[in-house]
Amino acid sequence: MHARGLTYETIRLAAQAVGMDDVGIVTAQRWDSDALFMDEWVAQGLHGNMSYFERNQAKRYDIRELVPEAKTVVVTLLTYGHSGHDYHRTLKSLLYQMKQQILDLWQPLDSGEIFSTDHQHVFCDSAPVLERRMAVAAGLGFIGRNHQLIHPRLGSRVHIGELVLQTEVENAPQPAPVADGCGGCRRCIDACPGQALGRDEWDARRCVAYVTHKCEICQQVCPYNEKLI
């Protein structure tokens, strides 16, 4: 007989066991303010040739449209140094291992109690999901001027993964928002070779990484990453 409900402690232990660098949880919901912001961003053409931002808006803004029975999203972080060459494969593998750890620790009578039976429950930069927004809501950092998630301890050189649950989590923590830690710093804005960064927008058309996939200057100059490079 398993415990009455899945606890955050079980999730935290599972994440720790597989080597995740941090973990948080957030209730599955629609992100209305982000929907308005992104619709306007796309309308201005700032997304460049990334036409996928013009599709799947309903799923992007509400993960329950992607996983209808979703109740909770477990958000995980893995640093670049722990991700290997193919971070998609590495992080997804760890998410599946984490799923099994949760099952082993909680021992539900039926795994369908918490995971979608059609396997739509593990994501890593592979679906129309607002990963950074959910990471912020889960208390894992803030969105910096480089428009990356910045974790106070891990910096912005992190990959985000999601494990979607079909159950609520008992004793779930209510994380306090991580305060915007950029202050008066403008290092990333001033160093950006294409002048793609602004406080409230990112112009993909000017971003060297968007064009060549080889620029990380905005992360290299970030004070939060200085000890990590």
Write a concise synopsis of the structure shown.
By secondary structure, this protein is of the alpha+beta class.
Primary descriptors:
229 residues, alpha+beta, 4-stranded antiparallel beta sheet, single chain
Describe this structure in words.
- Strand 4 (142-143) and strand 5 form a beta hairpin.
- This protein is globular.
- The longest helix has 20 residues, at 87-106.
- With 229 residues, the protein is an alpha+beta fold.
- The chain has nine helices and six strands, in the order H-E-H-H-E-H-H-E-H-E-E-E-H-H-H.
- Strands 1-2-6-3 form a four-stranded antiparallel sheet, sandwiched between helices. It has a two-stranded antiparallel sheet with strand order 4-5.
- 32% of the residues are buried.
- It has one domain (8-178).
- It is 32% helix and 12% strand.
Helices, strands, pairings?
Blueprint: H1 8-18, E1 22-27, H2 32-43, H3 57-61, E2 72-79, H4 80-83, H5 87-106, E3 122-123, H6 131-137, E4 142-143, E5 149-150, E6 158-165, H7 187-191, H8 208-212, H9 217-220
Antiparallel strand pairs: 1-2, 2-6, 3-6, 4-5
Helix pairs in contact: 1-5
Major sheet: order of its strands? 1-2-6-3
Low-confidence segments, given as residue ranges, are none
Termini separation comes to 47 Å
The total tally of domains equals: 1
Largest sheet: 4 strands, antiparallel
Helices and strands, in N-to-C order?
A: HEHHEHHEHEEEHHH
Structural class comes to: alpha+beta
Mean pLDDT: 91
Radius of gyration: 18 Å
The percent range for helix content is 25-40%
Strand content: 5-15%
DSSP helical segment count: 9
User: How many strand units?
Assistant: 6
The shape, in one word, is globular
